[in-house]
Amino acid sequence: MVLFTHAAPPYATCLPDQLRLQPGNSLIIQCLAHGSHPIQFTWSRMGRGSLPAAAETTRDGKLMIANVKQSDGGTYKCVATNHIGSSEAMAKVIIKA
């Protein structure tokens, strides 16, 4: 555990940063961020802007899709933001039957 004694902008990472799934599988990506709290997480999909209709996000940085479809593939971006700045991390999702 790292303790920050001074204010720090977030540093974001995605776990996993690449995911191979088959249609019908569940997708869960966790966006993690270090830095001064509170940190807010925002997910988007590159090139599309909006997330798939079935996507759910949580306050602690998770992106979940219960039943992935072929069209859910792509690169997802998590932006972690606090009062000092923001950081982004990407996760590539590949869906093959």
TrEMBL record:
<dbReference type="InterPro" id="IPR036179">
    <property type="entry name" value="Ig-like_dom_sf"/>
</dbReference>
<dbReference type="InterPro" id="IPR007110">
    <property type="entry name" value="Ig-like_dom"/>
</dbReference>
<dbReference type="InterPro" id="IPR013151">
    <property type="entry name" value="Immunoglobulin_dom"/>
</dbReference>
<dbReference type="Pfam" id="PF00047">
    <property type="entry name" value="ig"/>
</dbReference>
<feature type="domain" description="Ig-like">
    <location>
        <begin position="10"/>
        <end position="94"/>
    </location>
</feature>
<dbReference type="InterPro" id="IPR013783">
    <property type="entry name" value="Ig-like_fold"/>
</dbReference>
<dbReference type="InterPro" id="IPR003598">
    <property type="entry name" value="Ig_sub2"/>
</dbReference>
<protein>
    <recommendedName>
        <fullName>Ig-like domain-containing protein</fullName>
    </recommendedName>
</protein>
<keyword id="KW-0393">Immunoglobulin domain</keyword>
<dbReference type="InterPro" id="IPR003599">
    <property type="entry name" value="Ig_sub"/>
</dbReference>
